[in-house]
Design brief:
The strands form 5 sheets. Strands 9-7-5-2-10-1-11-15-19-20 form a 10-stranded mixed β-sheet, sandwiched between helices. Strands 14, 16, 17 and 18 form a 4-stranded mixed β-sheet that branches. Strands 3-4 form a two-stranded antiparallel ribbon. The protein is of the alpha/beta class. It has 13 helices and 20 strands.
Length: about 425
């Protein structure tokens, strides 16, 4: 059996959590490979909503779940997440890679200071960017360090001294920072999470070598990738499928399938260019239907029409083998439905995604209009879920088939509701 990567093709929030939950029934391992508590995956199961920030959503199925070395993990948020599952009687087996970095209070302080300065890019203030910055500066603290906390004091002191200088010199803030207090925090983390620390890379490779199925779950979306996204309005890690191999510690030949997830429309959170942003009142209508509010922050998401230029770019970057379309039901009753085929920039039509956010900001979408459809009846929905795709309204089928031809990639899954079972396999 292969490794399967599930990746977002837009600016995040595409519904990756539901897709992973749906396909993970036969998984032997489910691995989250980058990001931290800035991500939020929401799954609705039997009318109950579960929100994940660190854990792979396959935890709901009681699977062995792993947090890979490419992550930056907030220990207290992770413990909260585990406790919420324990209360539901769900006790997944968890392995945290010893090479994963720990988000500390100093990282959150820096994140908050940057956003409060008015010069931030609209982060979740969870300390993710500073944690990755300190990782690159080689002053980060990893879960493997918890076994020998006394030996990391010099590195921790350097990180705290750096933070104090930045807060004072850049943000004009004086903060009481204490190495011993940070050491005490790490001792608490060791006592509560130390038993979960292991070698995720070894687990993944051994599972694949014996024929097991491993699902690799990304956070955010391709267009927020630190290298290939709309920089600087991006996250602080690599969100593409290629990053899964490096972040987990496995060879690229072991990835057999890349499932790209996209909404039937587009959303993004925070600042940055967004060519297909909808006008009111349609934007608010779709936002409410799709519950387009951040899982982590509760912020309302910006809503736009489907952007085929952006999604084709993401398909290319990730080597997508099949697509999952989510929230197709949320466009019901809107007529016409718009799809962006290309951009107009300086009087010329362009079909490739610009590498400059300044150019993207000035691009105007070139739309095609398609007929809308009415809300699905229960009979149409049940027939479609039982495998009869033709039971869907003709206009909705036309929309899916139009996108499939436009993207030159098979659309294998179509989500028509929030519940796990409300997913059509084509």
């Amino acid at each position: 059996m292969p490794a399967v990567v599930v990746i977002g093709l837009q600016w995040g929030d595409e519904g990756k959590g539901k897709v992973v939950d749906f396909i993970s029934e036969r998984a032997d391992l489910a691995v989250r490979y980058q990001g931290g508590a800035n991500a939020g995956h929401t799954v609705v199961l039997n009318g109950r909503t579960y929100r994940f920030h660190h854990l792979p959503v396959a935890a709901l199925r009681g699977k062995h779940v792993c947090l890979a070395s490419g992550m930056v993990i907030d220990p207290m948020k992770l413990l909260e997440e585990l406790e919420s599952l324990y209360k539901e009687g769900i006790r997944p087996r968890l392995t945290i890679d010893g090479r994963a970095h720990i988000v500390l209070d100093i990282h959150k302080m820096l994140d908050e200071a940057e956003e409060s300065s008015g010069k931030g890019v609209g982060t979740t203030k969870r300390g993710i960017g500073p944690a990755y910055a300190y990782k690159s500066a080689r002053v980060g603290i990893r879960f493997s360090d918890l076994a020998e906390i006394e030996l990391i004091k010099p590195r921790l002191k350097k990180a705290i001294d750096m933070t104090r200088a930045l807060l004072s010199g850049v943000y004009n803030m004086n903060a009481e920072l204490d190495v011993e207090r940070a050491i005490q925090f790490l001792r608490e983390v060791a006592s509560r999470l130390g038993r979960h620390v292991g070698d995720v890379s070894l687990l993944v490779n051994e599972t694949l070598d014996r024929g097991g199925l491993v699902i690799l779950e990304g956070a955010q979306g391709t267009l927020l990738d630190i290298d290939h996204g709309t920089y600087p309005f991006v996250t602080s890690s690599n969100t593409t499928a290629g990053a899964a191999c490096n972040s987990v510690g496995m060879g690229p030949k072991k990835v057999d399938e890349v499932i790209g997830v996209t909404k039937a429309y587009t959303t993004r959170v925070g600042k940055g260019p967004f060519p297909t942003e909808m006008d009111e009142p349609v934007a608010s209508m779709v936002r409410e239907r799709g519950r387009e509010y951040g899982t982590t922050t509760g912020r309302p998401r910006r809503v736009g029409w489907f952007d085929a230029v952006a999604v084709r770019y993401s398909i290319m970057l990730n080597g997508v083998t099949s697509i999952a379309i989510t929230k197709a039901d949320c466009l019901a009753g809107i007529d016409p439905i718009k799809v962006c085929l290309a951009y107009e920039f300086n009087g010329q039509e362009i079909k490739s995604f610009p590498d400059s956010p300044q150019v993207l900001e000035r691009c105007k979408p070139v739309y095609v209009e398609l007929d809308g459809w009415e809300a699905l009846s229960e009979g149409e929905k049940l027939a479609a879920l039982r495998g009869n795709f033709d039971a869907l309204p003709r206009q909705l089928r036309n929309y899916i088939e139009f996108l499939e031809k436009l993207l030159v990639c098979p659309i294998k899954y179509v989500s028509i509701g929030a519940e796990r079972y409300e997913t059509i396999i084509r």
